[in-house]
């Protein structure tokens, strides 16, 4: 393994120097598009050593563009990309015109062409992506997201209970200093496990379970391996070097496969999770929401599958279920960690938001889907879309109703984001003080 990696680095570096494409220096000029070179923010050396990742270049391009410039061209060896700055344009691409933008930014190479990893929604391309995307979209309408609210509430309450136990066990019997990222990750792990598999992972009570460890392993990718794989895809394919932790991937694949088998045979009671919706879709039993029930967002985002011969296979269902751990775990955790940090640093905003949240809290400490969707100030604090937005709002509402959050003695203000895993991350050791109200 180490020999293979060293071979990749040495051979790759030589090839890269020899074969460095010369036509990319101003590739976008032929289309009248300004090209920005992101290397001042993250050099090739910094990318290849894993010191920085492509998000540093994204941030740099964002700063270089003037207020009137909506996008620019960039080269991410070997891909030619368009970087969108304008939010309205991004929204249009992501919602109404999604069907035309079938190929996502590729972040890493998958060495085995037969691997089920190739079926992940964020990896699929062209017509195949369209087919899968339009097939699973009915599982993400407002009506279906509403189904998840029950688990956001039950997991949220359990999570708060555990945090209160920790605060009560402290010397003050009221406050506890917590590491934010691992704590919010416990909530998001349990939410995804319930939402996808209907599986009670119990991470908020048992953060060191095998399940929780596997989620973290799946979501953590080695930055310099990713960078190398993008520069030298053929070598990675030739040597079969995996970027994803395949042991963790197989762990989830097996859970989904067992769940799918049991549900297809009708052995289990019906549940409100993604797997159930996929089973209903496969059997042709998933009731789609009536046109009148779809929000204007959903009508805009609707995309028709163009090939009626498309078959939803077990492999495709399996891959999409595992995708949620890739796409929905660390994204939401990082977002929540930053939100709690900002609320700790801005007590006036926290107070105002708590006041709003407390107007809609139910007697049993839960929140209703419709009420949480109508919070005006929350929408200013918490941006996002669809499932992730509702999940994040629920987490924030549960915490603010029960705790005051403040900077801990170790909290650096301003916080410094950490580059890695293709997102800007809050530092692992970011601590905040939670005090029971
Ligand atoms: C705050 C949290 C989140 C953020 C900021 C976020 C952001 C994004 C972005 C920017 C993309 C587009 C990537 C690209 O075009 O290359 C994406 C795709 C995706 N996300 Fe999220 N996401 C979040 C949470 C979630 C959650 C909770 C789930 C599911 C449980 C999810 C599932 C997906 C999937 C399946 C895709 C691929 C869609 C496709 O290719 O058609 N995300 N996300």
- Order of helical and strand elements: HHHEEHHHEHHHHHHHHHHHHHEEEE
Number of helices: 19
- Helices and strands: which structural class? mainly alpha
Number of strands: 7
Distance between the termini: 53 Å
Low-confidence parts: none
Question: What are the key terms here?
Answer:
437 residues, mainly alpha, 19 helices, 53% helix, binds protoporphyrin IX containing FE, heme
In brief, what are we looking at here?
This protein is mainly alpha-helical and 437 residues long. Helix content is 53%, strand content 8%.
Describe this structure in words.
With 437 residues, the chain is mainly alpha-helical. Helix content is 53%, strand content 8%. It has helices spanning 2-19, 44-48, 54-64, 87-94, 126-136, 142-169, 180-197, 210-219, 223-231, 233-239, 246-264, 274-282, 296-301, 314-328, 330-345, 347-360, 369-373, 376-381, 386-402; strands spanning 71-76, 79-84, 175-179, 403-407, 418-420, 423-425, 431-436. The chain has a 3-stranded antiparallel beta sheet with strand order 3-7-4. Helix 7 (180-197) packs antiparallel against helix 14, helix 7 packs across helix 15 and helix 14 runs parallel beside helix 15 (330-345). The structure holds protoporphyrin IX containing FE. Residues 104-105, 121-122, 133, 323-324, 327-328, 331-332, 335, 384, 387-388, 391 line the site of protoporphyrin IX containing FE (HEM). Protoporphyrin IX containing FE is lined by residues 104-105, 121-122, 133, 323-324, 327-328, 331-332, 335, 384, 387-388, 391.
